[in-house]
Specification:
Order of helices and strands: HHHHHHHHHHEEHHHHHH
Shape: globular
Helix content: 40-55%
Largest sheet: 2 strands, antiparallel
Structural class: mainly alpha
Distance between the termini: 104 Å
């Protein structure tokens, strides 16, 4: 039954009511009038659906800019007024205020140094409300502060003494982390994160042999691991990256590492759009979280390689140094739920070609500190992952040195004086 059949514009009663039917002198005209309204309503409904499906891009852009400007003006009232450039210029003098805020290093430093994490911290409230907005650029701004929020929360939590306030004093940080966790839980829709592992017995990753009728799988047959013959019945191997996420309304101690790890995973998904100072801070925090200062972190390197890199960065022996936010981390427990996104982010900072040199060098130090920590705690999966990153880093440095040496040789050869050649005399026959 058509839901618009008995609907009349203007809030009129339905045409099937007894009073309306008895007052109509001509049933045919009444039916024609009803059909005309039915067609009009259908056209209006279709036009409304089309407008919803094809929104005006200018209206959407103006709404996004207005929302970003209002959030920036609110932030300017929460930060010190001596910022240069002032936040009002970011809001009023840019066609995309959210991206201008994302690329503002003074704003990042001022907000990072002003965070307290208390339940009434206005900056945590600003981060929470901004992430709940639907604007993707504003969400990028909040994600750029995930390393700082995670570091302050975990470091303060694990450095609380008996006379210090409990973790309820960090409810501001927990609210920000829970907003990211809830959004990711909703987007995953109760499904785990899986990865398909290829069957190495096949000739290539894209080769799938046809299964004949005679090749029925035998569940009792043990495959010969030394056979070079391809397996006619390859079994797809699936690895579990993350189990389904459960909705959480509070940060419990048993779920703390998972919630922070999911927030860091959200950061990793947008890491290509994160500013360099945010990545640099994360690498410094990861080295502080490892907290391992021993000679074994340099066992894969020559005696001068890491010392030279640390000297260029101004990094002290414990892996910390001058950064953007000025905050320092503390040695904390590192369960696998937290280490997985940490290693992914460090892998990007270490190997992505467009990263700044200081980001790559800081990631190199952090990976070695995590390797030393895992070696002392005997965590095989972390040892394997960090060793792989160290080897890739060494090969990248060796390739860079070879390229510099080759360029120097070419330059020296071009500057070497050579004897002038005698002009060639060509004999031509007349």
């Amino acid at each position: 039954m058509d839901p618009h059949r008995n609907h009349m514009p203007g809030g009129s009663p339905p045409s099937s009511s007894p009073s309306t039917a008895s007052s109509s002198p001509n049933p045919t005209s009444s039916h024609h009038h009803h059909h005309h309204h039915h067609t009009t309503n259908n056209n209006g409904h279709n036009n409304q659906q089309q407008q919803q499906q094809d929104p005006d891009p200018m209206h959407s852009w103006y709404e996004s800019v207005s929302k970003a400007r209002s959030r920036i003006h609110l932030l300017s009232s929460l930060l010190p007024p001596n910022l240069s450039p002032p936040l009002s210029s970011l809001a009023d003098d840019s066609d995309n205020p959210a991206l201008s805020l994302l690329s503002s290093h003074p704003t990042y430093s001022a907000l990072s140094s002003s965070l307290s994490g208390s339940p009434h911290d206005p900056l945590c409230h600003w981060l929470y409300d901004t992430y709940l907005s639907s604007d993707p650029h504003l969400r990028l701004v909040v994600l750029s502060f995930v390393p700082t929020v995670s570091n302050l929360y975990l470091s303060l939590l694990h450095s609380l003494s008996s006379d210090s306030p409990t973790s309820s004093s960090l409810a501001g940080f927990e609210a920000v982390l829970l907003s990211l966790y809830s959004a990711e839980t909703k987007s995953r829709n109760g499904k785990p994160l899986l990865v398909s592992i290829p069957d190495l017995s096949l000739p290539s990753l894209y080769h799938t042999p046809r299964r004949s009728s005679s090749d029925k799988p035998n569940p009792y047959a043990n495959p010969n691991p030394y056979s070079t013959k391809p397996n006619p019945n390859p079994r797809p191997s699936v690895g579990l990256i993350s189990p389904p996420l459960e909705p959480q309304t509070a940060v419990r101690s048993t779920k703390r590492a998972t919630i922070v790890g999911v927030a860091l995973d959200c950061y990793y998904k947008q890491i290509s759009q994160m500013p360099a100072w945010s990545k640099l801070d994360f690498c410094r925090f990861a080295a502080d979280w490892a907290g391992q200062d021993c000679p074994c972190k340099s066992e894969f390197d020559g005696p001068d390689e890491i010392a030279e890199e640390m000297g260029d960065l101004g990094i002290s022996e414990n892996g910390s140094g001058g950064g953007s936010s000025g905050a320092k981390g503390a040695r904390i427990p590192l369960p696998w739920e937290l280490l997985q996104p940490v290693l992914r982010i460090l892998g990007h900072c270490l190997l992505a070609p467009l990263n700044a040199e200081e980001v790559r060098d800081s990631a190199s130090v952090a990976v070695r500190c995590l390797y030393a920590r895992a070696s002392h705690e005997l965590v095989p999966q972390v040892i394997l992952a960090t060793r792989s990153l160290i080897q890739l880093d060494k090969r990248a440095h060796e390739s860079a040195r070879a390229a510099v040496a080759a360029a120097a040789n070419v330059g020296s050869n071009s500057n070497t004086p050579t004897k002038a050649k005698k002009p060639e005399i060509l004999l031509m026959s007349k």
